[in-house]
Structures are given as structure tokens and as C-alpha cells.
Amino acid sequence: MLTGLISPFRRTSGMARWILVSGLFITGVFIAFALFAPWIAPYDFNQQTVDGVKFDKMAPPDGDHWFGTNDQFYDVLSRVIWGARTAVEVVALSVMFSVVIGVPLGLLSGFVGGWVDRVLVFLMDSLYAMPSLLLAIVFSFLLRGPLGGGIIAAALSLTAIYIPQYYRVVRNTTVSAREATYVEAARAIGAKNGTIMGRYLFGNVIQSVPVIGTLNAADAIGTLAALGFLGLGIQPNEASEWGYDLSRALDDAAAGIWWTTVFPGMAIVLLVTGLTLVGEGLNETVNPALRKRRLRPVQLPPHEPSTYLAEKDDTRFAVGDRETVEKRDER
Amino acid sequence: MQTKPEPAVVGDDLIEMSELEVHYELRGGTLSRLLGVGAGTVKAVDGVNVTLRRGEVLGVVGESGSGKTTLGRALLGLAKSTRGTITYRKPRAGGEHPEQVVSKMSARELRELRTDLQMVFQDPHAALNPSMSIETAVGHPLKIHGIASGEELRKRVAAALERVGLSPAEQFMRKYPSDLSGGQKQRAVIARAIILDPEVLVADEPVSMLDASVRAKILQLMLDLKADLGLTYVYITHDLATAKFFCDRIAIMYLGRIVEIGPTDEIFADPKHPYTKALLKAIPEPDPHKVVPRDLPRGEIPDAASPPLGCSFHPRCPEAVAECGWESRDLRNLLEEHWTRQDPSVYESEQGLVGDLGVLDKPQKRVTIGKGADSARVRQLLDRARAENPSEPLWRGVDEVRETEDGVEVVFHKGYDPLLRPSGGVEVACVLYPEPVTPEPARPEDDRHGS
Ligand SMILES: Nc1ncnc2c1ncn2[C@@H]1O[C@H](COP(=O)(O)OP(=O)(O)O)[C@@H](O)[C@H]1O
Ligand code: SF4
Ligand SMILES: [Mg+2]
Q1: Any idea where the domains of chain A sit in the sequence?
Q2: In this complex, which of A182, A190, A204 lies closest to B127 when CB atoms are compared?
Q3: Per-residue pLDDT at B164 exceeds 80
Q4: ipTM
Q5: Does the pLDDT at position A317 exceed 80?
Q6: CB–CB of B341/B350 below 8 Å?
Q7: CATH of A2-286 among 3.30.70.60, 1.10.3720.10, 3.40.640.10, 3.40.50.2300
Q8: Taking CB atoms and an 8 Å limit, are B128 and A186 in contact across chains?
Q9: The pLDDT of residue B446
Q10: Which of A318, B15, B318, B403 has the greatest number of beta carbons closer than 10 A?
């Protein structure tokens, strides 16, 4: 188990390892915020008073409110930390939902083939072709009625965007894995189709799911913020959400009140960056083909003015020779 | 290699294949699919009749692409037969053998059948699920068929692993395929195949992808297992040398058909079919100082999607006679071969003379070449090609070369597609056997192109 966890580190080196480590660090900090928000955040996300005294409105950062307060009398630092919890919850749920739906669909579609496959490919391709924000907007409109404006509704609207990605990757891997000899061997020992899919294909077609998962998570943070910004995401009374805070703060920014925009904005950028780094780092370890081998730089012969050509013929020849030798070296 | 095993006690008929065909429809490009026309059919197995007897080792030998794997897969119902039947007579206590027709079985019956028929694959690495431990992989058949579970399952897996020489079993059970060597992987595959205590094992080139050093050991293991477990083998190989060591009977396959079948000793002592003779010549001599021609007869294996007319071996056959099914495509090959020996300028002018050889691509018994050209010169060209190599078997199959108004017409002799017929101690599909040349009975030569 432990070796499984550290194997991505052992398989990478240099740049890729740094990408992974720094990504994990940033993401880890936000996950810590999310898990321990009640203990880390100085106040509640919708707290306007302490000991019966109301906070100042839009107070700049000071000792009591490190990140200041906003136009709703809320403490910005607390909003940012509680916002991490919202973001992590929504993103984790949406990734989970889309994996749980997309992976089995892809597996089934790739394995069964025929018209089931064709219909699903068509549906998923159409979903994939739509602008993701538009899709999320449509779904959050649709889901607001039955589910309200909470975490679940937001997660589900994001889910719809990401299902096609898992579906496509898993389906395509399944289509090629289906022809593998070990699948035929499974048939030869009398395995049913369900067993073949579950025990023989599943483990081999989900290799790239973690990569897609983290990259999607990064994307989902942005989309969730955009929904919030448009007032379609999490409703303010349900939880603290960075995008919503940003949209409220935008008007004040013109009046020189920077802290209400900068901090939530930075949180979004940082978490997106962290998750992207993790995704790219994982990608390098999961797909070794993408790992570029370090190339030795090609040494070009020094440029010589053509007038010297006649007398320096010999040296040019030698230089040209060296170049070929080095090129051969690289292979 | 080890000593040849005692001749097995060969019992009753176990599996009977009759007129077995496995044809694959080729899917063409998008356009032909839209138009609903297939791009053709690959006749991977094309009318095979053979009976497997209990306790024997039947060798299936042929070059790659001759349909050996497909035949093995069809036996287990892994490849769907498009025609013909496979009848399995399950041996039971009390001497009764209920017949089961593999080709008519439902998915459920097929799964049931696989407790009796098992397969060992060519590439042991590909045959094991990379993400499944050896213990799980080898024990899975028992689990799937609900035969054992828990501690009992573990015990039986350990026993099977020990049986195939993976000991101590405890050590191998925890491993994954990537931890094992090629030979060890093949042992694991064999363990998985025998754990259900099957009747028949189809071994598809089980040692061809292994290091030479472990081949003999794996073959010896298979012989030991056969003796201990009373197995019947179908041993598929392209290597007659291992077949000689391993098999009681050998079937030589070429382009989806059995062209010669008989007891191993007879095949080796007196090979009849020209293809068998060629394969025998290609066996590397154990003595490295003896230089033996290693190449198989000229030419490549023809495309299984459009096999030659008549005897499908005729384009490569050194003994071919007039009746072997000569046709337009052979003429094309001959001309092209002729040109490889000419100067570019000669080639240019001759090529210009006969024009596009595409007319020869469709199998035909009479063709006209050099349309619109000076027919006398076209004829001279053919004469030159003939003079170059008068012993070329093709000319035996040319009845007539005629100058007509629009070119030179070449008429080929009527050919036959020989059936497998007894000759001496074996059966052979060649118009030369039994002697003298007796083309009948035979299928009409264009039978393969009929539908
Ligand atoms: N699943 C398939 N679909 C289409 N063609 C196939 C398939 N399997 C085998 N073939 C074709 O059938 C012929 C025989 O193949 P195979 O049985 O693998 O021969 P061998 O095992 O003797 O090398 C080949 O021409 C091969 O291309
Ligand atoms: S029928 Fe016999 S002689 Fe004629 S081509 Fe075939 S193998 Fe050769
Ligand atoms: Mg094969």
C-alpha cells in the first residue's frame, strides 16, 4: 500500500517530481482548510458579530480581521477558509459522481460495442462539444427546482460536464483492451461478460482516471466560481463560495477596497494551480511515453563569414564532422 | 531433448470436426460499409475434417497465417464457426459418451464446456491479466465455476502451481505477471488451464515465444501433465521439429485447410504433399555443420481473403502440374518476376506493350493481355519469358496462347481443388496422390470463389 502511494515519486525525477510535490503541497493546504475550517477560521462564514458587537463594514485588514471584512459585515479570512470547504466538497462530489457514472458507461460501451456503443458515443460527444460553462448553467437552472441551491445541486451540474471525459477515455481503452489475449483467456476459463469487465478490464482501463480526475477538479473549481459569480451556484445562505464573494466585491474594487476581491481571487487561482500541477505530475508518471528524455543540446558549428571559406576549408570540414557525431550521440 | 514418450493409449473419438469453417468478414472502408458491401472474406479455416482421439497428441503444423490459431479457438468455441460442426463426446463413467455440438451451444453451455476444454496461449505475457496476482489468476477458473473457495481454493492453487513447477507455491502466489520470467508465466498459464482438470488442452505454440533454454522444459512438463492427468492435446506449432518430438499424429495446414494428415512417423519418413516436404526441408539441422537450405518455397503465403484457384499451394509448388489451378494472377507474378531480371529500358518497353496488368488481378481462366498493342510482339514477349525458365511450372498449366484481334489470349488448363484422400498411411490433398495423377474426386477449382 505504502509503496503504491510513493511509487509516483520514485518514477519521476527532476521537473516532474517538483511539479507533483508543489502541486500536492498547495492542494494539501486547501484540503486542510476544508477539513478543519471550524478550527482554523476565526469566525463562522456567516458570522457578523462577536460577543454581540457587529463587525465593521468593509474594514481593511487589521489585527482582528487579517483579511478585512466585506460589505455584508463578514470576515474575509473566514469566508476564504470556509470557501475552501465548499470548493473541496463540491469538486470531490462532482468528480466522484462523474467517475461513478462515466467509467462504467465507458467500460460497458467499449466492451459491448454495437448500437449501444454508437448511441452512447453520440450522446457523449454532443455533451462534450457543448461549452462547459453553458452546460453547467443549464443544469444548475434545471436542478435548482428539485434540489435547491446547495452543494449537491452544484456538484451535479458540474458532473454533467465531466462525465464525457471519463467515458471517452475508458471507452477507448476498453475497445483496445477487449482484444487482449488475457480477455480471451478469461473467456476460455468460462468467465461471464460481467466478470470479464469487472475483473479483467476494469483494473486495466482506469489507469488514467486519476489524472483526468485531478485535472477536472482544477477545471471544476473555475466553473464553480463562475457559476457563483453569475449567482447560479451555491446560494450565499448555504455556504461560503469564492465566486459569489468575488462578484459582490467587484463593485467595491473601483472604490479602492481591494481585500474583498484579492483574497478570494487568490484562493481560486492557487487551488486551480495546485490541482493542475498534481494532474500534470501524475500524468508524467502514469504515461511514461509523455516523459521526454533529456536531450543533449545540438552544438551548431560557429558561424563563419563566407569570405574565409577558401582558406578555412579544413576546419569547416572538421566542425561539420563533430556535429554529426554529436547528433548520433543523442539517440 | 528428452526421449520421446511411450505411444499413448489412444482411445475413442473425443472431438470430431466436420467441414469446419471459420470465415471472417472483412470490414472495408467507410464507403463500402455505407454501400453495404463487404471487402471480402478471410477464410481462416476453410473446410476442416479431423477427429481427435482420446489420449493422443495431435499436431497442427503450418506457417503463420495458415489458420492454426483460429482452428484452436474454434474448438473451444472462442471463434464462431460459420459452417460445419464440432462434436464433443464427453467421456463419462459407465462408458456412455453423450454428444455435444460445440457450434450449437449457448453461451451458458459454452462456459460449462470450458471445464473440459482448455487452452494454453502463444504469448504467456499477454495471456495473464497484468493487474491480477498469480494466485487469483490461477484460482479464478475454480471460482468462476463455483468449484472451490476460501482455504480450499488456496490449497488447490498451491497444488496446481507446485504441479507445474512453480515452487514454493507460496512465493509465487503473491506475485504479479510482471514479476515472472517468460517460462514461469507460461507455467502459470498451464496451471490455470489444468486446475479445472480438463479433458483436452489446446496448446497454441506454447513455447514459440520463450527462450530456447526453457522450451524443452515446458514441453517436458506438458508431457508429464499429459501422462499424469490423462490429457488429450492439440499441439499447434509452426515448428515441425518440436512436433516430431511431441505428437502422435500431425496435420499440416495451409491457408485454412489440412493438406496432409497422418501418424508422425509416416509424415517424417515419407512426406507426400509438396508443402510438407518443403516444411521438412526447412527444419534446422541439429548438426550445425551441415548446411541445409532453410527457405520455404518461393513466394509468400497468398492473401487468405482471395486464395489461388485450384490447389491453393500451386503458386509456390515446385511439383505443380497442369491440373493445379493455374490462372491469371500467376501470369502476373511471372511477368513481374521476369521484369526484375531485365534492364530498366527493356522493362519500360515491355511494360508499355502489355499495358496495365490490373486485368490479371481478378482470378480468371482465360485472359487477354496487351489490348491494342501489336499482338505478335506481345506473344514474343511471352515466348521470351518462357525461354528464360522453361521449367517454370506455370507453363504446364497453359493450354493455349492465341493472338486475337485485341491482344494475346492465354488459356489455362482446367484445374482442381484437391480433397484430402488416403494415400499410403496418410491422407493428403494433392492431385498427385494417390498416384498416378487422379484429380477426381475434387471440388471444382473455383469453389472458394463461388459465393
Ligand atoms: N479475428 C479475426 N478477424 C479477421 N481475420 C482474422 C481474425 N483472426 C485471424 N484472422 C485471419 O485468419 C487467418 C489465419 O489466422 P490464424 O488463425 O491466426 O493463423 P496462424 O495461427 O496459423 O498464424 C489470417 O489471415 C488472419 O489474418
Ligand atoms: S495439387 Fe499438389 S502438385 Fe498441385 S499444386 Fe497442389 S500440392 Fe502442388
Ligand atoms: Mg497463431
Answers
A1: 2-286, 300-331
A2: A182
A3: yes
A4: 0.83
A5: no
A6: no
A7: 1.10.3720.10
A8: no
A9: 60
A10: B15
